[in-house]
Write a structure and sequence with these properties.
- Keywords: DNA recombination.
- One of its GO terms (biological process) is DNA recombination.
- The protein is mainly alpha-helical and about 650 residues long.
- It has 4 domains: about 140 residues, no CATH class; about 60 residues; about 180 residues, no CATH class; about 130 residues, no CATH class.
- The chain contains 28 helices and 14 strands.
- Strand 5 and strand 6 form a beta hairpin.
- Helix 1 packs antiparallel against helix 2, helix 2 crosses helix 9 and helix 9 packs antiparallel against helix 10.
- The N and C termini lie far apart (about 80 Å).
- It binds a DNA duplex (20 and 20 nucleotides) through helix 2, helix 9 and helix 10.
Amino acid sequence: MSEALDDQWVVRGDHDEYATILFNEVMPDGYALNHPRHTLLLKTTQSLIVASREGPFAFTQSPKVLARVARSIIGFGAWCNMENIERFENVTPDDIARFVSLAATGYERTMQTVRRIQDATDALRSAVGVPVPLALALQHAGIPSNLRSKIPRALEAYYHMNYPLALETVSARTETKQTLTKGTLYQKFFPLDMLWQCRKSISSALVFEPFPAGVWSVAESLGKDNGHTKTMPVNVCFHILAAAVNWVTLGNALLRLMHETSRDPSKAEEACLQFSKRHANELCGVSLSTRKLGSPYIVHPKTACITYLPTAVYIIIAAFTARRDIEISKLSAGSVTGNSESGWWLKSYIAKTLRRDDFTPCPEIVKAAVCLMEKIGREVRQEHAISLLFVVPGDANNCSYRRCAIDINLFARLVQTPKVMIEEILTDWKFSPHQFRRAFAVLFVWRFEYANIGALSYQLRHFNIDMTLNYVRDAELSSLIGEEYHKLTLEKMRSYANGPEKPCGIFGNVLKKFIQRFRNTISMTDEAGLERKLVEFVEQRKLRLRATPWGYCGASGTPSNLRRAACQSVINPSRGITLDGVPDSTGSDEYLCARCHFHVTDSTREDHWVAKQKSMEQAARNAYTSELLRRAQMERSRVIRIFIQKNFNKE
DNA sequence: GCCTACGAGCTCTACATGTC
DNA sequence: GACATGTAGAGCTCGTAGGC
């Protein structure tokens, strides 16, 4: 911890982390916290920060957490000051009850900002006239000016008193303040408990235990449940991923353009024009220019390279490795190792669970993205002997390097990510880094159909698999996956009805007959009629085709389907049911599906079947294969061979 | 259930950059 | 050179993921 300054402490932690705690906040009486009249509160706050970090009541080393403790104590001190309570010793249980119930409704009501700003405006009117400057009114009311976004009602009152005609324009700012979440309240109330626990080592303390039933029980009774990270709509997710991949693919060319244009400014504009024309598709609707032309979709090549390219790299890493924001931000240059044959591995710090570096498997695009970022910041890293990946050259006159400003929403707007309908308003989707971690889980679960949650749990580095299941049990996700299954089923049915693919397998033949029946009942030229019949068929039967490498499973979760599905036979030790109650395809294989009532396949899987049959035959012929296993493989190979002959007309 | 450690979103300030 | 605009980085309150 640094030495005490007049108005702030700089609290340092591990890994160069630090937090600044300001002690010059204006109190409701108009005097700053570090004014001599607030010495007691200041000393108590400082003592509690020390006690939180050292000694018997220490619970954290994190500078940010210590800063939060300070904020809570100062906040409570400000409320006491407003209530004319000079020492914490004078606080009564009733005061605590009043404070916590007010605190649950947010800053504005707790600190009675409406009344205070009205009083301040009244008092200042005679001295400065109307309108009273807002900054002056806030200062006189003892409300920190940076909290303006938290006091919409107080602002409305201020504007009403000073600019009556402008009221309509500001009334939109008012909204009912919802109760804060349990977690937030817990963090607000916990430091109050310390005013009792640490009573022997602080200047001013509570004389009773404020939360005998526990801090959490109070927070729980007053707060609302926490929310969760939203799931990106599929089209939005795929659009921004495609854009990020395109930008990363174009990255080296963009860097060359930036260097060319900076070397020869006279040709810069022409070079940008030509580049934009040549790479119109990859740039996803963005044009490059060295001049400011007013369009949000025109950017300077330097901005493209040091702002948008790092963001594209960030998105690629987040989406394809499921790493958290903090884990990506801390990546070092050279963090991807491996090769195209044995695979690529991203070395990153694993926050929350392991809390150490670990390797995560990743696709080649991640390796390309990291290499690109290494190139962007190479000179900076060499010059300053740092390893951080996400750094770019800083401002020439001020700092020589800086961390990349990753702004996913800015990038999304630039590449014109589709808008979404939220509460009947077409609006931009609001991205957050954690949504890509969630998107990874969505894509994994959808692609592998709930298979191997253990693998997903490892990728997310959860200690507890229940945490992973929280992702895949989520109602929003289930509905999303259900929707995708529905789309896939309809697409396959259309494809089977209109060609060129023909369904085969036992269930495939059933589908073929239904499609033929539809064709017989409608005019051959009535494609709309056929489409209608297909949709009705899929919806009425609740048909959901789920993909496997060798075809599709059409079994539902009804008792009769489960009884008849080949993979659910009691002699199959690998049988299993997915979380939505249908047969788990990971407990099945080609041999079982070849004779199953619910299996569909088509020519897109033909190569797979042929290769499988060959590999089984070779394995059976292997001299080292035991006799028992050889016989089993020969039998399996025979069944698959017959399936191929019957369905793909091959000998 | 309880708790920690972060992130999101907002505003403000200082400074850089662009435009006329 | 004056002014407008853009942007990084700070602080704040409130929200969220996830460990045990």
